[in-house]
From TrEMBL:
<dbReference type="InterPro" id="IPR023576">
    <property type="entry name" value="UbiE/COQ5_MeTrFase_CS"/>
</dbReference>
<keyword id="KW-0949">S-adenosyl-L-methionine</keyword>
<protein>
    <recommendedName>
        <fullName>Ubiquinone/menaquinone biosynthesis C-methyltransferase UbiE</fullName>
        <ecNumber>2.1.1.163</ecNumber>
        <ecNumber>2.1.1.201</ecNumber>
    </recommendedName>
</protein>
<keyword id="KW-0489">Methyltransferase</keyword>
<dbReference type="GO" id="GO:0043770">
    <property type="term" value="F:demethylmenaquinone methyltransferase activity"/>
</dbReference>
<keyword id="KW-0808">Transferase</keyword>
<dbReference type="GO" id="GO:0032259">
    <property type="term" value="P:methylation"/>
</dbReference>
<keyword id="KW-0474">Menaquinone biosynthesis</keyword>
<comment type="similarity">
    <text>Belongs to the class I-like SAM-binding methyltransferase superfamily. MenG/UbiE family.</text>
</comment>
<dbReference type="InterPro" id="IPR004033">
    <property type="entry name" value="UbiE/COQ5_MeTrFase"/>
</dbReference>
<feature type="binding site">
    <location>
        <begin position="115"/>
        <end position="116"/>
    </location>
    <ligand>
        <name>S-adenosyl-L-methionine</name>
    </ligand>
</feature>
<dbReference type="GO" id="GO:0009060">
    <property type="term" value="P:aerobic respiration"/>
</dbReference>
<comment type="function">
    <text>Methyltransferase required for the conversion of demethylmenaquinol (DMKH2) to menaquinol (MKH2) and the conversion of 2-polyprenyl-6-methoxy-1,4-benzoquinol (DDMQH2) to 2-polyprenyl-3-methyl-6-methoxy-1,4-benzoquinol (DMQH2).</text>
</comment>
<dbReference type="Pfam" id="PF01209">
    <property type="entry name" value="Ubie_methyltran"/>
</dbReference>
<feature type="binding site">
    <location>
        <position position="87"/>
    </location>
    <ligand>
        <name>S-adenosyl-L-methionine</name>
    </ligand>
</feature>
<dbReference type="GO" id="GO:0008425">
    <property type="term" value="F:2-methoxy-6-polyprenyl-1,4-benzoquinol methyltransferase activity"/>
</dbReference>
<feature type="binding site">
    <location>
        <position position="66"/>
    </location>
    <ligand>
        <name>S-adenosyl-L-methionine</name>
    </ligand>
</feature>
Length: 243
């Protein structure tokens, strides 16, 4: 199919996103390493360096997948803190729980099957909320931003790590060539799933540009919003506070 290239009705989008992540759940980590040549680890390390988390605090990892950000935050909050890893997809959440257990994080992590648009936590719950490569897949991004803002404690911050739009001259054509030919090919030979990785490339193109996401964050009530480009804007880390 060529569903990545046509307008997809909202109700259908969620089902498709679910199918994509069910299909990729088991080889998700391998594909991440191959697709980004390992660079996703650096993007995540930089994100973790910005959480400001201290021992005993609480963090929420939305769309946490296999838990790379959760694991880093578990170290930061320590045994007396808490990290809640959420994902909308049960298969991914199960992968996440296994991966966290393998890394030795058991006592200070909880798992919750949840939609980013309607987080099942009280207001003012978390010192830091992260969403890594997840907002792109959310159907109602404004609702997700409001929901993540709501569960932040006053003074807490939201960190959004997401594919973005290259800002370095000459990078865009190379990046387009990569994502529209190399990526689906990798998806085909490694994950036997060309369509899911075609969807990935298309969803990155449609994601709001850096300044536009800042405006959406502000509209959701986040303050002092800023972004930092990584790898020439292929990825960006957006930050906003709740005051
Ligand atoms: N954060 C992890 C990382 O950086 O490796 C996983 C990212 S993975 C590309 C995106 C995840 O978002 C998938 O596990 C998917 O199930 C989840 N997801 C998609 N839509 C969601 C939604 N509306 N609410 C919560 N999670 C969602």
């Amino acid at each position: 199919t060529d569903f990545g290239y046509q307008q997809v009705p909202v109700a259908e989008k969620q089902a498709r996103v679910r199918a994509v992540f069910e299909s990729v759940a088991s080889n998700y980590d391998l594909m991440n390493d191959l697709m980004s040549a390992g660079t996703h680890r650096l993007w995540k390390r930089f994100t973790l360096s910005q959480t400001g988390l201290r021992p005993g605090q609480r963090a929420l990892d939305v769309a946490g997948g296999t838990g790379d950000l959760s694991a880093g935050m578990c170290k930061q909050v320590g045994e007396n803190g808490l990290v809640v890893l959420t994902d909308i997809n049960a298969a991914m959440l199960a992968e996440g729980r296994d991966a966290m257990t393998d890394r030795g994080f058991v006592n200070n992590v909880r798992f919750s099957l949840a939609n980013a648009e309607r987080l099942p936590f009280p207001d003012n719950s978390f010192d830091c909320v992260t969403i890594g490569f997840g907002l792109r897949n959310v159907t109602d991004k404004a609702a997700a931003l409001r929901s993540m803002q709501r569960v932040l404690k006053p003074g807490g911050q939201l960190l959004i790590l997401e594919f973005s739009h290259p800002v370095v001259p000459g990078l865009k054509p190379l990046y387009d060539a990569y994502s529209f030919s190399v990526l689906p090919w990798l998806g085909k030979v490694v994950a036997r799933d060309e369509d899911s990785y075609r969807y990935l490339a298309e969803s990155i193109r449609k994601f709001p540009k850096q300044p536009e996401l800042i405006e959406m964050m502000q509209a959701a009530g986040l303050e002092n919003c800023k972004y930092h480009n990584l790898t020439g804007g292929i990825v960006a880390l957006h930050r906003g506070y709740r005051f």
